Amino acid sequence: MKIAFNHAVIGWLAVVLTSACASRAAQPTTPAKVVEMDTLRIVAKHDASGSYTFDSYDAEDLFRRANTELDAGRCSEAVTLYDRLVAEFPSNRYVSAALYNAGLCLAHDARHDEALVRFDRLISGLPASPDVKHATFQAGHINIKLERWEAALTSADALLARQDLDSAERLEAMATRAQALLGKGTIDKARHQASQALSFYRTHPAEQFPDAYFVSAASFVHAETTRLSGENLAFPDTNQDEQRAVLVKRAQILLDAQREYFDTIRYTDAHWASAAGHRIGAMYDTLWHDIMAAPVPASLSPGAKAVYPQELAKLIKPLLRHAIRYWELTLMMVERTGVRTDWADKTRADLERTRALMLDQRLGDGALPASAPASPPVPARSSATAP
Length: 387
Prior knowledge:
Radius of gyration: 31 Å
Helix content: 55-70%
Mean pLDDT: 83
Strand content: 5-15%
Structural class: mainly alpha
Number of helices: 14
Distance between the termini: 33 Å
Strand order of the largest sheet: 1-2-3
Oligomer: single chain
């Protein structure tokens, strides 16, 4: 059984009494102050013997209890209390913080869709709350992780339209927008946005940015757009000269992208440095696979066509050595920093696969290996903190 008491401090009672006794007291010269108090709820419970126990609480009490559970790492218990606060006290001043904290807790537990429900309810239902900005950042990062690019782009655009972002927050929004555009496959727009983010970073004092995470993210996106522009160039099936022209172009783009990935590594963020290190090795690996899968030029004689795959495999075998070398260096860097990332796991797997390929005696016989596995989506980080 729940009994709700909506208390208000009845400062106006003094006005009523004074009016009733006007002949004995003067009217007050200042208006009476009315202070609204939180709704108090009392829950009555009875046991098998018929005895009752009572639990009284208000929104502030639920919020404090939820925070205690959150601090202790008991996310499910904390979210239950936050949700209870929102359901029972929907107009209370703690609702915004309860939704935000519940979203953070759920995101930390990788319950991303549930977290988005809380963040989206806060953003749409309490647009004037100061927590909306941080909830929008969090929603954007979760949508990047879930590869919901359009939703992430909407979040980034909403943030960049705000006038209350500091330099670090604006860079974060720009980097998130670049990631979303890259995920959508709009390469030119992603490159432009990443370039803007990098320019913004370089033209502001370094002390305005607490860490290098988001400038590294923008740098990584910039390098990705260069890499993709090369890998989208297919080898023609006409003649060796035309194939060679494409190869020269792709090799130049590979070196340009490699330089940009090195720039990402120089920002010294462990997460993005490992991503960039993996990508450098992967470029050589991908180029090897693409060359091996390229059509035999139609202009070759029948005899030349027969030996073309074997001769080609011998010539481009150094590409695999480059891939192995860069992946080894990446793992050394990861081990030195002690940071565990999905990119490090991906690097280990690709390194073992390519080492096995190098040892395969069939490599010199022109046998085509399986295509390189796809790389994981660009990860994102949550950065806003609970109020």
